[in-house]
Amino acid sequence: MSATPSTGSTALWRTRGLIVAGFTALSSLFSLLDYTPLQFISVSLVQALVLVVLGAVAALGCALRMPALLLAAGAILIVVGLVRLVTYDATIGIISGSVNAAALMTGLGTALIAIWITSRPMPKSS
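Structure (tokenized):
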């Protein structure tokens, strides 16, 4: 029994992780849009920075074959998104910003954690 995933499954989770990491970082571009029909999500500057940094961390985790970085980036995205959703009425400090961007962060964080879960080797059934 091998404790490491096969080469094919390693490439698969890395590819999926890079795709989601790319979408995470590219989501910050919504903060630059000033044209209302294209601005599907209103992203504040702080939210854009969070998306870029955590997207880069997730991509780094894929490049270095460290799925734990996917878990960390996903967990932080979920926490930041949920804090904003729970404090909907508050507009204090860095938690202010769009709740639809917070929902996007929560969804992308969930996707990164799902990729982390699937990157783990499955136990052999007897």
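Confidence is low (pLDDT under 50) at residues 1-6. DSSP finds four helices and no strands in the chain.
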